Each structure stands twice: as structure tokens, then as C-alpha cells.
Amino acid sequence: MAEAYGGNISLTNSIHNPKVAILITDGTNCDEELFYAFQKYGGDPKYVHVNELRDKSQNLKNYQILAIPGGFAYGDDVASGKILAVELISFLKDQLKDYINKEGLVLGVCNGFQVLVRTGLLPFGNLGKMDATLAQNESGHFECRFVKIKIEKSQAKFLDPYVGKTLDIAVNHGEGRFFARAQNLAKIEGQKLVFCRYVDENGQKTQKYPDNPNGSLKAIAGICDPTGKILGLMPHPEKIVDITQHPNWRRGNVEAKGSFIFEGMIKFAKQR
């Protein structure tokens, strides 16, 4: 496992691998798992502190993928991901715009998804304007367990090989209920921006608890923007890239299916 904040692991030759900026700040966690997952599937990740972007010692233009991990950025004060979202909009708006204009890939996991929604990058790429939110779980408490999601056809074309696949995946969140006004929800569905949903044992999308852990509308677990290059999801795919990360791995019939998003993004970045 990578050493925290700046350590490196050497699983692959990173010279020609897509460079991945793992964005960190106070309260970030799951960054080591994200680092490990990207490197395992052919990326060249580096921890980049938000202050390094602000003081210009680092620049997103030097990376092909920006990944925002889970955790509790700035203690989730005000609302989950809100302060980091405001920081990105207030101090790094131009840098983000330049990065997105050059078609860099973006992934936000859990707290990172909350950040992307609160910046307005998801769902419609309206930087500085919120068109959806992630509200408190309907259960009224923090959800920390494995659930099932199903990958479906979306604007994220590099995920096409995984469409129809159902996988076990970890969730760890208290504010994961995806919510949008009816007109925005219809737009999200109409533009095919949903790339994964919570499903039941039969692989059918569901609003029922506990299969839908937070009450997300339309069972939405992950979305992309209209370009298909900015993605966010509440579940943690980086927590199931090794079989031994599953609680029932000793019983067999377990696959490390969280690899789908890392394989897809890395392959796409290499082809560009």
C-alpha cells in the first residue's frame, strides 16, 4: 500500500502510464485505496494537495485524470463536500475550466461525488451552479456495508464493456441520497447520464431499503456529465479491486469487480 501523502508504490512501469492527480486536503481518506486502484490498473498516480494547486506548485494540466477521494473534507462542515467545492470554485475555477476544456477525465468517489455535485460539474457541467444534491440518507444514519449496483449504458462510453454487469460494492456515507428537481431528473435520464444504479438480488433497480442504502431517486448510484468524462458515484469501487477486500471472500463466488471504472478510465486515457 502506498505511504500516506506523497509515498509511492511500484506495481507497474509508470513512464508511459496516464498521470492521475489524487486530490487531498484536510479530512480526506480512502485516498490510499484510490491510489492503489489506479496504479494497479495502469495509472501513474500522485497525491496532490489542494494547496499545491492554489500556490501553483502543481497544475492539473500535467495530468490526464483528476480523482477526488472519499472521506470528510474539512470535516464536512456546512454540508458534505461543500467547503472543498467552494474552494475549487473560488480559487481554482480557471484551472478547472482549462483542464476540462482539454478533455481531462474526472472521478469523484463518495465525498468526491458530493464535491463534484456541489461545484456544479455534475450533472450538467455548470461550474458554480448546483443542479442536484446529495442529501442525508433516508435511513437517518451512516451506511457502512456492501450493496449491489448495476452498470448501464450512459455517456461514459469507456464503460460500455461493463454495461449490464452487477457487482457487490462498499458504501460508507451519511449523505448519499441523490436528489434533483423533476425537470433536472428528467434531463439526467433523457441525456443518459446515469451509469450505475442500486439494484436488488434480482438485478432490478430499487427504491427499497436496505438494497437502496440512502433512498436515492431513481436508485441513482453514479452519474456522469454530458461529455461522459466527469464521473461521480457514492459507492467505493476502490474498496473491491482485490478479492480479499470482500467480507465473504473465503466463501468463494466473489469477484473484484470494482476494477471496472479504473480499467475503463485508464484504457480511455491511454488511447488519447
UniProtKB/TrEMBL annotation:
InterPro entries in the record: Class_I_gatase-like (IPR029062), PRibForGlyAmidine_synth_PurQ (IPR010075)
Name this polypeptide is given: Phosphoribosylformylglycinamidine synthase I
Coiled coil start-end: none
Keywords, ordered alphabetically: ATP-binding, Cytoplasm, Glutamine amidotransferase, Hydrolase, Ligase, Nucleotide-binding, Purine biosynthesis
Superkingdom, taxonomy of origin: Bacteria
Pfam families assigned to the protein according to its UniProt record, in alphabetical order: GATase_5
GO CC field: cytoplasm
Originating species: Candidatus Curtissbacteria bacterium RIFCSPHIGHO2_02_FULL_42_15
Gene3D superfamilies: 3.40.50.880
Any one of the GO BP annotations: 'de novo' IMP biosynthetic process
One annotated GO molecular function: phosphoribosylformylglycinamidine synthase activity
SUPFAM superfamilies: Class I glutamine amidotransferase-like (SSF52317)
